[in-house]
Amino acid sequence: xxxxxxxxxxxxxxxxxxxxxxxxxxxxxxxxxxxxxxxxxxxxxxxxxxxxxxxxxxxxxxxxxxxxxxxxxxxxxxxxxxxxxxxxxxxxxxxxxxxxxxxxxxxxxxxxxxxxxxxxxxxxxxxxxxxxxxxxxxxxxxxxxxxxxxxxxxxxxxxxxxxxxxxxxxxxxxxxxxxxxxxxxxxxxxxxxxxxxxxxxxxxxxxxxxxxxxxxxxxxxxxxxxxxxxxxxxxxxxxxxxxxxxxxxxxxxxxxxxxxxxxxxxxxxxxxxxxxxxxxxxxxxxxxxxxxxxxxxxxxxxxxxxxxxxxxxxxxxxxxxxxxxxxxxxxxxxxxxxxxxxxxxxxxxxxxxxxxxxxxxxxxxxxxxxxxxxxxxxxxxxxxxxxxxxxxxxxxxxxxxxxxxxxxxxxxxxxxxxxxxxxxxxxxxxxxxxxxxxxxxxxxxxxxxxxxxxxxxxxxxxxxxxxxxxxxxxxxxx
Length: 478
Known about the structure:
Elements: H1 40-46, E1 55-56, E2 60-61, E3 65-70, E4 79-85, E5 93-102, H2 106-141, H3 148-155, H4 167-172, H5 175-196, E6 207-208, E7 210-216, E8 219-225, E9 229-235, E10 241-245, H6 255-263, E11 267-271, E12 274-281, E13 288-290, E14 296-297, E15 311-316, E16 321-327, H7 329-332, H8 337-345, H9 353-368, E17 377-383, E18 426-427, E19 461-462
Parallel strand pairs: 18-19
Antiparallel strand pairs: 1-4, 2-3, 3-17, 4-5, 5-6, 5-7, 6-14, 7-8, 8-15, 9-10, 9-16, 11-12, 12-13, 16-17
């Protein structure tokens, strides 16, 4: 099935879709300072995540966002999504994210990251703000009176050195970027570490992408891992809507990604029947064939070049910016950035924008890849202006059409293992025609290469037989 090394995989032993600490009671003597923000972890003590006001993870819309996900034709829907308004108890702050799981338990990993990552991000954000304020106060009151060791101790609230701030970058971006950049890096690291020790979900050959965004006022900070994508729709000088890609699809065909993987003894090459899709392989096994260079989970590859370190970017929106679209690769495999912008802009209403995009992508899949199974799709559309006259609020409404995977149904308990006839991102050995020859990269000499073009592909993860001992390691088994 979907496991890259099925004989070594472990079965999940039960899990809850929410963090175990949800049921923890508040300490009796805990007190809050007047005027302080509620910690994100206070939510976990107070009530379940799905009851938090402003937190949406089901099909529907609010005054500022539209969400929709639909199951493909490969099995359980492994995509997840989230919009969290008033994020971190800040009235002007929104968190958005889409998560594309892969492997036999990818749906569990995607939901776990969706539920846990925002809490970790908010908590580390608060720590960084607090430690930053302490350092500023100390700098003003006791300038020159402290030795470097004392300063380091105060800065290392999370028991790790803070990320060094490049002075040129600090001048170019506002303080919120530096603070959130450190918070993103720390939260992603802790999230992946937690998945590694998670006994209830087998993440050895399962994982998820994550493209996440925090918007505070006009400032936007994005953390991206994998090949999901975020784009911005803005007006040009002719007042026409044009797309601006905010993230890079972190695939193994990127030169820097491929170099890192090979330095760690991982292999990167494409198969004969899909030469445009570079994949990551173990040094001595024809598996797992992962079509991305960064991901949460997938610990079978973490010692061979796969990482979960996010690529962080910043943008300050202007009055010309209309909306942002975050979507899993089920959308980008069949639609261009421009097509996505035009579909959202022409939707009957903002509340139906995300659904209109998914339905168009499904039709495109059937037209472009009639012999392939339609991929799962998840879309979050965040509108940047405050004009809500043309938006009909229908938060978490359930579509009535048949054949649509309604995410408004009650979240399944992931302690019950879902039977998968076939993982949404796995191909069987019979479907694969390995390529003869050495490692192949998707690049042509003399041709300009762009990371923003993306590729059309069918699957993310492959499973192939083991290598025959003694054969050339660079060649897949025939």
